[in-house]
Amino acid sequence: IQIVEECDSVLWKVKVPEELKVYYAKRNELSIEASMILWGHRVVIPHKLKERILKELHVGHFGATKMKQIARSRFWWPSIDKEIERMVNSCSSCGSQHNDPPKEKQHKWEITTKPWERIHLDFAGPFRGEMFLVIIDSYSKWCEVERMANDIRSESLQKS
């Protein structure tokens, strides 16, 4: 707390100690409330409490993504993401329960042998307030673009 209170002192303006530069960069966003340093609505965690907070966050073995989401909503300290990743990577339970979805096999299109055998369609826009239908022939790479009505819902397109 003393560090935050001294942010505007002459010492800060002369030379900022290396380990405090990250706090100095946020000096205009830090506040003190009920003896806690806040960055916005998040509590700035002192160095000596980081491990305790990390252990509490890790209790459910949610994995790095969920832990970061929870931590970022409530706390802040320099390198919070790296420390969460370090904890998750060093946990054997998280490693054994880690459930990466299988990688989707990339779909390969069959090679076309003549024009208009296969076309690709997509909408583009809005561009300057208008929508466009883009049609590309996969064989020749010929492209056709048609200006569409702004309403591209299927019911509207069927009426056209």
Q: How does the SSE layout of this entry go?
A:
Blueprint: H1 2-5, H2 10-14, H3 21-25, E1 30-33, E2 36-39, E3 42-44, H4 50-58, H5 64-74, E4 75-76, H6 80-89, H7 92-97, E5 119-127, E6 130-137, E7 143-148, H8 154-159
Parallel strand pairs: 3-4
Antiparallel strand pairs: 1-2, 2-3, 5-6, 6-7
Helix pairs in contact: 5-6
Helix tally equals: 8
Q: Strand sequence of the main sheet, in spatial order?
A: 1-2-3-4
Shape summary: elongated
Biggest beta-sheet profile: 4 strands, mixed
EC number: 2.7.7.49
Protein name: RNA-directed DNA polymerase
InterPro entries: Integrase_H2C2, Retrovirus_Pol_polyprotein, RNaseH-like_sf, RNaseH_sf
Domain Integrase zinc-binding: 45-95
Description of the molecule:
This protein has 160 residues and is an alpha+beta fold. It has 2 domains: 95 residues, Orthogonal Bundle (Endonuclease III, domain 1), CATH 1.10.340; 42 residues, no CATH class. The protein has 8 helices and 7 strands; from the N terminus they run αααβββααβααβββα. The strands form 2 sheets. A 4-stranded mixed sheet has the order 1-2-3-4. Strands 5-6-7 form a 3-stranded antiparallel sheet, with no helix packed on it. Helix 5 packs antiparallel against helix 6. It is elongated and about 75 Å long. The model has no long low-confidence stretch (mean pLDDT 82).
Salient structural properties:
160 residues, alpha+beta, four-stranded mixed beta sheet, three-stranded antiparallel beta sheet, 8 helices
Short description:
The protein has 160 residues and is an alpha+beta fold.
